[in-house]
Amino acid sequence: MDRDTIVKDNLTSRRLDFDQENNILDTIYDDKEDENINEEVYDKVLNDFHTNISNTRIPQVGMEFESEEAAYNFYNNYARALGFSIRRQACHKDSNGNIMDRTFCCSCQGQRRKDKRDVCVKSHRPETRTGCCAEIKINARETGKLKVVGFIASHSGHNLVSPNKSHILRSQRSINTGQASQISNIDKSGIAPKAGLSYIASQVGGRENIGFILEDYRNYLRSQRTMDIQTGDTGGVLEYLQQMLSDDPNFFYAIQVDSNDLITNIFWADGQMMADYVYFGDVVCFDTTYRKNKEGRPFALFVGVNHHKQTVIFGAALLYDETAETFMWLFDTFAKAMN
User: Fold this and answer.
1) Which among 226, 211, 217, 173 is positioned nearest to 191, based on CA atoms?
2) 21 Cβ neighbours under 8 A, 6+ residues apart
3) pTM: predicted TM-score of the whole model, two decimal places
């Protein structure tokens, strides 16, 4: 018995439940693995899907929504059940900024433009635009309410994702307010993102129930660190460094980031520090005695003694920790600044 016959038997013997993850799409993808689904088989799957769920859960021409967000959520829930990701496409607004029409489409719609830099790129990003035509159009020009005026259900050029993997799709991922607060608390406790995500997953019964992936977790922490930089002590330091660079052409500073692109260590030295090093840099003392009162992070100084037996500073740094890797980066940076 060939695979198409097996799939046909599955379609006729099993009813598809919209709210159930272990549905016919799982069966097909388990059988087909990563191979492309035959178009005839795909049409049967789509027809069976639409036949066995309530029409109120399938986009229909004439449906009305109170807001664009409501329409987006409706189509996104439909997309999750069927196994694809969506994105916002075309939009027109009136003079007051109210949306008059909007198109939501499959994330695989369109074609990637040819990049003139292709010959210079060593590793291309995966091709995601395959010309899929699936979309839904809403319009508010007739009644003032957003009404569905067009719906294309058929997909082309790409595979659908089985329901047990649909939580990975881009449009299905988001971090709510409660999760954001929990992530921040976990990060403050010093727990790494990977371990933090595992902890959250254990609370909700698995990673498929979280609503986001490790990349989203790290992106949220990165955005929070950026906000802290803009409004906190580190932001003031960066503003100072940039101002000093514009005032002093000999000013030097360097910033080290970790694997998540978060700022860890900052070093700087002005023109006077460099000049003092030239004359009095025979002996250099490195000191991390001083610490910030609030965060308890080391404030490191490279110091020496001038011909009047006065202490002179050759460079300064704000450090995240006192590990060997941090000190190696700091000493290398200091050597580069003084040469």
Assistant:
1) 217
2) 163, 164
3) 0.57
3-state secondary structure of 256: strand
CA neighbours closer than 13 Å in the CB half-sphere of residue 197? 18
User: What distances in angstroms separate CA 83 from CA 93, 106, 204, 266, 337, one per listed residue?
Assistant: 30, 10, 22, 46, 54
Task: Using the structure block, give the residue that is written with the tokens 């449906």.
Answer: 63
In order of 28, 196, 279, 296, the CA distances from 232 in angstroms are 53, 25, 37, 15
Of 169, 155, 160, the closest CA to residue 35 belongs to: 160
User: Residue 134: which of 94, 99, 171 has the closest Cα?
Assistant: 171
Alpha helices in 103-192 (DSSP H): 177-188
* Spatial contact of 136 and 102, defined as CB atoms under 8 Å apart: no
- The total of other beta-carbon atoms located within 10 Å of residue 45's CB is 22
CB within 8 Å of 199: residues ≥ 6 apart: 186, 191
Residues 312, 304 contacting (CB under 8 angstroms) = yes
Point out the residues of the chain with pLDDT beneath 70: 1-43, 45, 115-119, 225-235, 259-262, 291-296
Closest CA to 80 of 144, 173, 152: 173
Strands 135-139 and 99-106 turn out to be antiparallel
3-state SS assignment for residue 250:
coil
Q: How far apart are CA 178 and CA 104, in angstroms?
A: 28
Q: Which residues contact 222 (CB under 8 A, 6 or more apart)?
A: 260, 261, 262
Rounded to whole angstroms, how far apart are CA atoms 198 and 217?
11
Model pLDDT, residue 29: 44
